[in-house]
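retry 2 of 3: previous attempt timed out while embedding magnesium ion. Reduced batch size to 1 and resubmitted. Inputs unchanged:
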Amino acid sequence: MAKVICVANQKGGVGKTTTSVNLAASLAAAEKKTLLIDMDPQGNASSGVGVDKGGLEETVYDVLINEIDPSGAILSTEFAGLDLLPATADLAGAELELVAAMARELKLKQALEAIRGRYDYIIIDCPPSLNLLTINSLTAADSVLIPLQCEFYAMEGLSQILNTIRLVQKGLNAALKIEGILLTMFDARNNISRQVSEEIRTHFPRETFAAMIPRNVRLSEAPSHGKPIILYDITSRGAASYLELAKEILRKEGSNG
Ligand code: ADP
Ligand code: MG
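retry 2 succeeded.
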């Protein structure tokens, strides 16, 4: 049965999509059969693994709203072992349509039941808000990974997502765990970046991943080529950092049995 990890933070531009794409590819590179689910109407995770959103017949929208079997919408990617459940702009409509639906928070969880057996990992890329798409993702997940940009307001943003996680644990998904806090866009030459990373590690010593993602221009270039970083430039510091993150997650899994 797949372990489902949701990548969430209500702030935009903190590295959710970059982390979802590159963690998913790094897990696939470690021979774990992996599914990446794009839950953001912007569809950046879909284009990030080279999928042309123009020609798609079925997407995660149809899974949530028309309750189609997700197998019908899942695509294989150029990267061996990595599949994608894509999203396009129409997913923004699902957010509104879900409001009136029965068991509206459970749509993704119910849909994943049919396919969990086929994967080792399922990685969900969330939109930059705490809306029903994010709630569906947190409800479907075993754990949540929180990317945190090393900048001044990082701590405040963190308490907001931690509150939401607590609410979901109370009402919808008591088993939801925190996979970890991932420091992203770290720049060792920048004082704020160093201070924030130290502060987060002091407050959350167990939760913060040892792996840390540096600010790396290769990571920002890769999406325009439709490639995960390990296909685009395996020698980059960005690639090494995401491979390190995947290793840390796999190690933890191993030690938990
Ligand atoms: P989110 O999904 O949280 O909105 P993204 O992953 O899309 O954030 O990242 C926001 C922008 O920053 C993108 O243009 C992305 O390419 C870039 N970016 C993300 N992580 C890094 C990094 N470690 N170094 C440099 N650029 C990055
Ligand atoms: Mg994103």
